[in-house]
Amino acid sequence: MTDHSPNHDPTCLFCKIIAKQIPSRRVYEDEEFYAFHDIAPWAPVHFLLIPKAHIASMAQVTQGHAALMGRMMALVPVLASQAGCRPYPEGGFRLVTNTGAEGGQEVRHLHFHIMGGPRPWLRG
Ligand code: 5GP
Ligand code: ZN
After folding, report:
1. Residue 8 annotated in active site
2. How do the domains of the chain map onto residue ranges?
3. Do 12 and 54 touch, CB atoms closer than 8 A?
4. Most buried residue, 35, 90, 103, 118, by most Cβ within 10 Å?
């Protein structure tokens, strides 16, 4: 499937995952968001939550994205729990968004890392 909408970057790895051109292990999907297990998990639970619209990083987020970002944030505890993170406060999870090269970002499509589960973790 080819999507020529301006919200889609055909060269972007995560846009290709959204388009199912590259397989992934789905955690959640709706009209606006996709969540899938990280291919190289740091923790017993480690998945990525992404907007289907191609936004390169947090550095491109504006007030125009406020409602979308609010809905994305509100999904985090629901999906963390569904994916196996144990209840707060004994359990919990870590939410990370790397931004830009110095922020440690490798894939230039906005994503939240959600990590949780019993420690020790591989990293973090
Ligand atoms: P970043 O370093 O940009 O914050 O995170 C990118 C994340 O995407 C990394 O944790 C990496 O393991 C994950 N990743 C990279 N390529 C793929 C892929 O093809 N499939 C999946 N499921 N995860 C990927
Ligand atoms: Zn993209």
Report:
1. no
2. 13-116
3. yes
4. 35
Q: Which of 38, 42, 46 to mutate to test the pocket of ligand 1 (most atoms within 8 A of CB)?
A: 38
> What is residue 5's predicted lDDT score, i.e. its pLDDT?
58
Query: DSSP letters along 49-70, please?
Result: EEESS----GGG--GGGHHHHH
CATH architecture of 13-116: 2-Layer Sandwich (3.30)
Q: What is the pLDDT of residues 62-91, one digit of tens each?
A: 999 999 999 999 999 999 999 999 999 999
Helix or strand holding residue 69 (H, E): helix 66-83
Pick from 106, 115, 121 the residue to mutate for probing ligand 1's pocket: most ligand atoms within 8 Å of its CB: 106
